[in-house]
User: Which sequence fits this backbone?
């Protein structure tokens, strides 16, 4: 009888240990939060490969599909190593007297990130990896602006320098203890850090590199919208990790961020579809998925601060304003931002960052959010939001321009006319996307 009792007790202890893995482990670690952020990290990486890869890949012509997939894949690898060597340290460690501008090198090669090192109540290794996925997708977004005409070597060099000189400093300004974060900027998951930087960088790149051969004189239709819709679905699902994961906990803030993200995406899709239906008489598949991305990008900075009613307005605004921005960039200004990176991500990031300062208010009835920080009013918060947008926009534009000119001097930016005609798959990689 005693033996059986001891056996049952041992079995119960084993089950309890499996159910509560944090017991007897690192003090202060929250197992539930850790599990969620590990999941969110995988979701954000899923956004780049395969999500963004397929979304962009379907939008280019068949002769360039592999080049886009290759660029997304290679940027994932390069950005990961930069983050390992110095990116995380410069973004998220104390920079001493320079801390308002940039972090330090105390975490070179992630030397201080150990198995039992915590960032809040999750392992610092998980936090560093989560933030790495943001550093991966941001430069990958930019390639949509110069798709089908840039050398692969130039893409790698530009993306590496841009990550170091643009993305990492602005990440520190907002999330790493820098001056915008200290000011009280509301940017929950990357309105300025990801979407304004990527959008403005894309616009500058499109201007510097120039239009594709045949732009506005010959059709440049997406070669595989089925691929694009597949990638769009992956982006939608992955974005829950992007926004809800930024709560860094499995709590109500993450749950609300997920809810408002979905509402904005759905509303942005329908608003864009409605605009196309009114203008062209028929809704398009390309339009509804682009509206979804606009809705997702625009809610990103506001997702941890607004409620469902605010998300509805933000998504609706995104679908309409980003739609008109697309028409303006390509038709009025004749800028070949190939895959509409600035109109969707740049304008979405700007709009969402500003509207976060409105719908974070707790005094808007059914459109209320979580409320402002102590001492902040809507007026003072909007002032901070405008400063955040303006400083990010100006800094990104200037530094991106300098980087592009430097890369042009080093290796040249564009392929020649003959290579562009053949397509980048053959001219840059000696492969074909399809051999039917």
Assistant:
């Amino acid at each position: 009888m005693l033996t059986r009792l001891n056996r049952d007790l041992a079995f119960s202890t084993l089950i309890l240990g499996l159910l509560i893995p944090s017991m007897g482990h690192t003090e202060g670690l929250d197992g539930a939060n850790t599990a969620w952020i590990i999941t969110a990290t995988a979701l954000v990486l899923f956004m780049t490969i395969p999500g963004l890869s397929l979304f962009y890949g379907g939008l280019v012509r068949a002769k360039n599909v592999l080049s886009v997939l290759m660029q997304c894949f290679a940027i994932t690898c390069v950005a990961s190593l930069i983050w390992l060597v110095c990116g995380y340290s410069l973004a998220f460690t104390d920079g001493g007297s320079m801390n308002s501008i940039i972090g330090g090198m105390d975490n070179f090669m992630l030397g201080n990130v150990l198995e039992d090192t915590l960032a809040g109540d999750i392992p610092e290794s998980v936090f560093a990896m989560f933030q790495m996925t943001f550093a991966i997708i941001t430069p990958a977004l930019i390639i949509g602006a110069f798709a089908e005409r840039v050398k692969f070597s130039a893409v790698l060099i530009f993306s590496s320098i841009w990550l170091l000189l643009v993305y990492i400093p602005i990440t520190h300004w907002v999330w790493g203890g820098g001056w915008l974060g200290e000011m009280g900027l509301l940017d929950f998951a990357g309105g300025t850090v990801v979407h304004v930087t990527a959008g403005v960088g894309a616009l500058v790149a499109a201007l510097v590199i120039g239009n594709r051969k045949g732009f506005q004189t010959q059709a440049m239709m997406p070669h595989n919208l089925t691929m694009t819709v597949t990638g769009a679905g992956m982006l939608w699902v992955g974005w829950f990790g992007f926004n809800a994961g930024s709560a860094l906990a499995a709590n109500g803030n993450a749950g609300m961020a997920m809810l408002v993200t979905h509402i904005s995406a759905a509303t942005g899709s329908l608003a864009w579809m409605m605009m196309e239906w009114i203008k062209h008489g028929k809704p398009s598949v390309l339009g509804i998925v682009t509206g979804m991305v606009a809705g997702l990008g625009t809610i990103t900075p506001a997702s941890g601060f607004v409620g469902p009613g605010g998300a509805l307005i933000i998504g609706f605004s995104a679908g309409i304003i980003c739609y008109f921005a697309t028409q303006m960039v390509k038709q009025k200004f004749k800028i070949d931002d190939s895959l509409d990176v600035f109109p969707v991500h740049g304008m979405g990031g700007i709009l969402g960052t500003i509207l976060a300062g409105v719908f974070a208010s707790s005094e808007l009835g059914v459109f209320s959010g979580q409320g402002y920080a102590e001492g902040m009013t809507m007026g003072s918060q909007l002032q901070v939001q405008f400063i955040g947008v303006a400083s990010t926009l100006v800094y990104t534009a200037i530094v991106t321009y300098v980087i592009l000119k430097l890369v042009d001097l080093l290796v040249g930016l564009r392929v020649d006319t003959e290579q562009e005609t053949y397509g980048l798959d053959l001219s840059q990689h000696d492969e074909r996307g399809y051999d039917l």
Q: What stands out?
A: The chain is about 70% helix and 0% strand. The longest helix spans residues 378-410.
